[in-house]
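Thread title: Can someone regenerate the structure for this chain?

I was given the following input by a collaborator and told the matching structure tokens would be attached. They weren't. Posting the sequence so someone can regenerate them.
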Amino acid sequence: MTEALKKHRISIISILAALVVVAVAFILVAVNSTAEAEDSTASTSSPAAEGNAEENGDEAAVPVEVMTLADGPIAAYISATANLVPEDLVTVLAEAEGRVTELKVDEGDSVVKNQVLAVLARDEAEIIYNKAELKASNAEIAYQRARDSQDQGLISTESYDTLEMEYRVARQEVREAQWRLDRTLILAPFSGRITERFITVGQHIRPGDQVLTVADFDPLVARVYLPERDVWTLKVGQEARVSLGSGGASLEGRIQKIAPMVDTATGTVKVTVEALEDSGKLRPGAFVTIDILKERRPAVVLLPRESVIRELGQAHVFVTEGKVAVKRIVELGLEEDGMVEAISGVTVGENVIVAGQGGIDDGQDIQILES
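Best answer:
Regenerated them for you:
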């Protein structure tokens, strides 16, 4: 065997030995991986792992808040908004020309019917009245003499008729002068309060000029416009609520008038509601919500509105049976102040879920939180 052949044989043996070493190492790694996988499987099925699973089951219970159902009264209302206005509101106009010499009231003052509000200069009107009175007095004397003379046949019928006519004209002139004198006094048309003043002392005014505005605050009314279909069941005197602004107090009211005609442009009917309580609590112009009682039921099962879930035209709630949530289809009726009438589906004394029901399903475990 030549030297070259020997070297070639040694190289082949070295390569085979290296391949054997690599194969043995691969087998050892595979064996170790299998052992680790078996250990992992054993640990998963151990009692400790089973304990952890149980803990995970407890965490799946959904926390909820509940309320016990009770019965009570509920009512339905027709609601609308409006502004409160005085039922009687008049702007007083001047009926004579003249200078304002006295202003006896100001905005906010209370007045009674026929109270003097302002006075115009009276000197000229008084002079005219006194002249008319004097002329009428002389005419009356002449007329009385003529009547006595006629009885005695001492005066002609023509002369008597002339004196009688002069007397009657003189009395009419007195009435006219009295009327002009009265117009210098500006009077309250009714009892109420002064809401606006347009004149000042010393101002010269003419007939038709605005002087003052007088409003009768008792009662204050709200005029609402309701669809014709909502008015059929309403009656004068029917109960209503007047609520002041956002979150304001609610005051008692009633329907005062119902218009006899439908507005053809809007299809609505004007309904006037008056506030019954002390008008000192109210101010004209205040924005109010009017709730007119439509129907009242004395004792029904009341559901909190937040407990009701509405889907596809159907409503349901979740009640509790032990620690499980149970879905109940409910038929609803009237709604008022956050409560809904339950016609069917639940009964008094059951616990209904009011918070947390959005994330639960029928039959799901729940954890009831203390309120």
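The longest helix spans residues 3-44.
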